[in-house]
Amino acid sequence: MRNDELLALDRAHVWHPYGPMPGRTDPLVVASASGVRLRLAEAAEGRDELIDGMSSWWSAIHGYNHPVLNEAVRGQLDRMSHVMFGGLTHEPAVRLAARLVEITPEPLRHVFLSDSGSVAVEVAVKMCLQHWRSVGRPGKQRLLTWRGGYHGDTWQPMSVCDPEGGMHELWSGVLQRQVFVDAPPVAYEESYAELLRTEIARHADELAAVIVEPVVQGAGGMRFHDPAYLKVLREACDAHDVLLVFDEIATGFGRTGTLFAADQAGVSPDVMCVGKALTGGYLSMAATLCTSRVADGISQGEVPVLAHGPTFMGNPLASAVALASIDLLLSRDWAVDVKRIEAGLRDGLAPVADLPGVKDVRVCGAIGVVQLDHDVDMAAATRAAVRAGVWLRPFRDLIYTMPPFVTGDEDLARICAGVHAAAAAG
C-alpha cells in the first residue's frame, strides 16, 4: 500500500491515543524496527530512520527485533498461541508467575495476569475493596493518593489520577471521590511525611488502600520524589490497617536504577502492579501481585473468588516472551547500563537548562525530563526532534526521554541533542 493511501485510511478510521477523530496531523508510518531504530516508510524532515527515545512508551527496554525475544515468541507459537485460562493452565504462565514472585519484594506471593497496565490497576483496586468486604469491613472503600499521579485510563485508575489539570479532569464529579494529598516534594521533608501520616490516620476507617507510583510519577508530570516517603506510607498503613499499593507499571524492571522502585526504600507493598517492560515491548501484558493476607481475606468472603477474568489472561505467547525478557534483563549487568544512561542524560541534557523557557531539567535512572514554563508546541517540538533523527513524544509542559537500556553512548548523545532541539523549538 502506498504511504498516502495508508494515511488516508488512517485518517478515516483509526483513532489514535489522546487524539481527536479524525486526526488533525498525520502520524509517521513505521515500516520496521531494529535495535534502537525505527525505519520510516517515507522520510520525514529528511530522515528515514529515527532513534527511539521513548522505548515505545517505556516498554521496549531491549530494543526491537531482539533475537532472544523473537525466538521465545516463535518457539511458543509452534506449541500454542492461546488457550483460555479458566480451568486450564500452561507452563509459560506458571513459570512467569513463579519468576515474578522470585524477583519482587517479599511477601508478594500471588500473581494475577492481565492484558494491560490499566487493567492491572483495576484488579489491584478490586482486590483491596473485596478484601475488606470479605473480612467484614465494607466501609473501607476509598483510596488515598498524592496529586500528580497517573494510573491508567480505565474507570478506577482514572479516579486516582490527578483530578485537576490532568487528562481525566473531564470526569470530575462522575468518578468516585478519592482522598488526595499534595504531590510529594523532591527531597524529604518531615512536614510532608507528617501530612501523609495525618491524612491516613484521619481517613483510616474509610480507606481500602493507599496507591502511589513509587519514586517516579509518570504520565501525570514526570516528577521524582525521595524513596523515604515510601517507608512513611508503609509504616502509616500498617499502623492504621490500610493496604498499600505500588503502581510499578512504568518504574519496574530497572527503569529507576533498581529492579523495582520499591527496592530503593527497602519496603514492600501489599499489592504491586507491573506492566510495560514486562514483555520487553513485544506483547500487551501486565500483572498484579499481592500478599497472602490480601488473597486469604478475599477467599474467606461470601463470594470467595476474585471476579475478574480477561479473555487473554495468561496468554502463552505473552507469558513466554515476558519470561524471556526478564531472563534476558537479569542475564546482563543491566544496572551498569542504566547508570551509564543516567550519566549520559545528566551530561547531555545539562545545556538544555540554559534555553529560554526551560523551567527544570531532571534525571532519574534511565529517565531524562525537561520541563518548560509553558505548554509544549507539540508539532514544532516533534518536527525538531525528527530533524535531529530522534523520536520523542512531548506532552503538556514536558519533553522527556526513556531510551531502551541497549542504547549506545553515541545514540544517547543524539537523543539528548533531539531533546535540546525539541526544547528550543517547543
Automatic annotation (TrEMBL):
What Pfam families does UniProt report for this protein, alphabetically? Aminotran_3
Q: Which InterPro entries match?
A: Aminotrans_3, Aminotrans_3_PPA_site, BioA, PyrdxlP-dep_Trfase, PyrdxlP-dep_Trfase_major, PyrdxlP-dep_Trfase_small
Protein name per Swiss-Prot or TrEMBL: Adenosylmethionine-8-amino-7-oxononanoate aminotransferase
Q: Where does substrate bind?
A: W57, Y150, K276, G309, R393
Q: Which UniProt keywords apply?
A: Aminotransferase, Biotin biosynthesis, Cytoplasm, Pyridoxal phosphate, S-adenosyl-L-methionine, Transferase
Q: Which PROSITE patterns match?
A: AA_TRANSFER_CLASS_3 (PS00600)
Q: Can you say where in the cell this protein is located? A: Cytoplasm
**Which family does the similarity line name?**
Belongs to the class-III pyridoxal-phosphate-dependent aminotransferase family. BioA subfamily.
Q: Which reaction does it catalyse?
A: (8S)-8-amino-7-oxononanoate + S-adenosyl-L-methionine = S-adenosyl-4-methylsulfanyl-2-oxobutanoate + (7R,8S)-7,8-diammoniononanoate
Record-level Gene Ontology MF annotations? adenosylmethionine-8-amino-7-oxononanoate transaminase activity; pyridoxal phosphate binding
- Would I find Kinase among this entry's keywords? no
The GO cellular component terms are:
cytoplasm
Encoding gene, per UniProt annotation: bioA
Q: Which residues carry this modification: N6-(pyridoxal phosphate)lysine?
A: K276
The reply to whether Iron-sulfur figures as a keyword in the UniProt entry is no
> Which EC number(s) are documented for this chain?
2.6.1.62
Tell me which cofactor or cofactors this protein depends on. pyridoxal 5'-phosphate
Q: Which domain of life is it from?
A: Bacteria
Top-rank EC class of the record's enzyme? transferase
Q: In which pathway does it act?
A: Cofactor biosynthesis; biotin biosynthesis; 7,8-diaminononanoate from 8-amino-7-oxononanoate (SAM route): step 1/1
Its main localization is cytoplasm
Q: What does this protein do?
A: Catalyzes the transfer of the alpha-amino group from S-adenosyl-L-methionine (SAM) to 7-keto-8-aminopelargonic acid (KAPA) to form 7,8-diaminopelargonic acid (DAPA). It is the only aminotransferase known to utilize SAM as an amino donor.
GO terms in the biological process aspect are: biotin biosynthetic process
Instruction: Cite the binding residues for pyridoxal 5'-phosphate.
Output: G117, S118, D247, P310, T311
